[in-house]
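Blinded run. Sample ID left blank on purpose so nobody reads anything into the name before looking at the predicted structure. Input follows.
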Amino acid sequence: MRILLVEDDTRIATPLAEDLRYQHHVVDIAKDGLAGWEAAQGVVYDLILLDLMLPKLDGISLCKRLRAAKSQALILMLTARDTTSDKIIGLDAGADDYLVKPFELEELAARIRALSRRSPETRATTLIYGQLELDPSTYNVTYARVPLALTPREYMILECFLRTPTQVLTRSALLDRLWEFDKSSGEDTIKTHITNLRRKLKGAGSPENLIETVYGLGYRLHSV
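Blinded prediction complete.
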């Protein structure tokens, strides 16, 4: 999933983002409500983790603004306020769930998994393409039942292909989808990851052109 974390406390934001990235998510961080709003205008996020008490624009106001702008992102509010009235206000503003600080990272991961099951695009069902299988719930990838040891980026690129098997994906589209906006990665990075991914797939017995180049456009999965 591509996640926007809107949190002004770096002591919370930094380790939380690192844990989410370890779980194969792409995470951008905004340190105030206005920065969160601006980020959400330029990137399509699957999930927004939204602190309630934020400088410049509070979490409730940002949530309302996102919903008024027809944002389809799942919104999970993170806050130290745990009264029933606070939860009702957050949910009525358009949030999908509410988690009270302090919380365990395991509980947050479980909440994210539960929220992802609401969206057909992120539902954790095994993705199958010919003999290639990817299980989003365990991050296991096999070809002809041979396990593939992929890096997080290789895994996410392959998942993109499997979720849109007939679509041509450009390098810039993959960069926009899979790299944080504060990282200085270029399109050559995508080329390198594709090369390594092809090598690992071939080592498991896949055809050499399973990920084929569409010259002048990008890449797609070869029809099986």
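Unblinding after everyone has recorded impressions. The chain has two domains: 2-116, 127-221.
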